[in-house]
Amino acid sequence: MNLEEAKNMQMDALAEMANIGAGNAATALSHMLNKKIEIDVPVPFIGELVSMERQFVESKDAVVAVFLKVQGDINGAMLNLFTPESALSFVNLLSKKEKKEISTLNEEDKSTLLEVSNILLGSSLTAISKFLKLNTTHSIPDISTDMLGAVMDTVFLEMGAESDHVIAFKINLKIEGEKIGGDLFFLFDPKSTDKILEKIKIKLNVQE
Amino acid sequence: MGNIITVRTAELAVSHNDDSVRTGSIGSCIVIVLYDAVSKIGGLAHSMLPYRDEHHKAGPNEADQPAKFADEGVDNLILEIQRQGGIKENLSAKLIGGASMFSKIAGGTQSIGNRNVEAARKRLTELAIPIDKEDTGGTAGKSVVINLASGVVQVSSVM
């Protein structure tokens, strides 16, 4: 096996882990809304901090972002991104409102979105931790409505303060038949990625 | 109409005449704007991190990252302004950025945004360059553009 193949295998393993996390989030969302949820394949963002940031620097579209930090056996972060339209739809769907403008979201609506994301990200983390037999906790979530580029700037720098490399997976969730959805982002620092790969290796050996 | 030069993360650009220099998506990053009002030469640096430290050694791709670190960004921006004919003694600075978009989790004086602002301030003070305006901290992302004919700096945010 050459280096490139080894790298691809590691990527597959990490993407599979992201899938397990997102799958659980989708199940949770499905129960919450009593609707079918579609999951996309994970999109990797792996590379130097600077080039990751530059991918987003011109993204001026407004997003609603919920962010939390992961601590314990691994260090990382999780992010839930909604377009303003999806954020409004979630609020309207869950609290039986008919809001039309993102600017009309009040504290109560934001706390609704925080709670949705808390459930989605929390269930993802629980699934990943269980799968890899890792002990993890997460911070409380925080919410921000801003330019995608500025949000990603902050998120990557939070991860990049102690490393020049970023490892992240983006997975899109969508409610079947509707335009409502959101992106889940799982981010890990390089040390934690090594630990995750080690755990995946153990896991595979056990199953053989 | 002059050209509009767009600066990406970790880059800097200097110009003059009718040109404008702009950069966007400033969250926790810090943007240092320097302007020589006499020669009307100036520009900006878009820095990500405060200082080079043990976690951030020189990499192979740094040729196009002259402003990755705030302190080096200030130095390299001054060098480029001087190269184009500006005078260091005429420079004044403006700082934009260093926000904490998720202040409940990553706020406070130790946040990366705040450390970026501190690093830029410190380097400018060491070089005796006055900071005449700051739009730093807070929780909002920003974009910034400087018009070099007038020296006017415009900062905008979405929300």
Q: Can you tag this structure with a few keywords?
A:
heterodimer; A: 208 residues; alpha+beta; Chemotaxis protein chec; 8-stranded antiparallel beta sheet; 6 helices; B: 159 residues; 60s Ribosomal Protein L30, Chain: A; 5-stranded mixed beta sheet; 21% helix; globular
Structure notes:
The complex is a heterodimer of chains A (208) and B (159). With 208 residues, chain A is an alpha+beta fold. Helix content of chain A is 52%, strand content 26%. In chain A, strands 1, 2, 3, 4, 5, 6, 7 and 8 form an eight-stranded antiparallel β-sheet that branches. In chain A, helix 2 (49-56) packs antiparallel against helix 5 (148-160) and helix 3 (84-95) packs across helix 4 (107-132). Chain A is globular, with a radius of gyration of 17 Å. Chain B is of the alpha+beta class and 159 residues long. Chain B has one domain (4-156): 2-Layer Sandwich (60s Ribosomal Protein L30, Chain: A). In chain B, the strands form two sheets. Chain B has a five-stranded mixed β-sheet with strand order 2-5-4-6-7, with helices on one face. In chain B, helix 1 packs across helix 3 (112-126). Chain B starts with a strand and ends with a strand. The mean pLDDT of chain B is 93. The interface between A and B is large, with 40 and 38 residues.
User: Any idea how many domains of chain B?
Assistant: 1
- Identify low-pLDDT runs of chain A: none
Q: Helix and strand string of chain A, N-terminal first?
A: HEEHEEHHEEHEEH
Q: Please work out how many helical segments of chain B DSSP would assign.
A: 3
Kindly report how far apart the N and C termini of chain A lie.
19 Å
Radius of gyration of chain B from CA coordinates: 15 Å
Share of helical residues of chain A: 40-55%
Taken as a percent bin, the fraction of beta residues of chain B is: 25-35%
Radius of gyration of chain A: 17 Å
Spell the H/E element sequence of chain B. Answer: EEEEEHEHHEEE
CATH architecture of chain B: 2-Layer Sandwich
Query: How many E strands of chain A?
Result: 8
Silhouette of chain B:
globular
Ends apart, CA distance between termini of chain B? 29 Å
How can the largest sheet of chain B be summarized? Answer: 5 strands, mixed
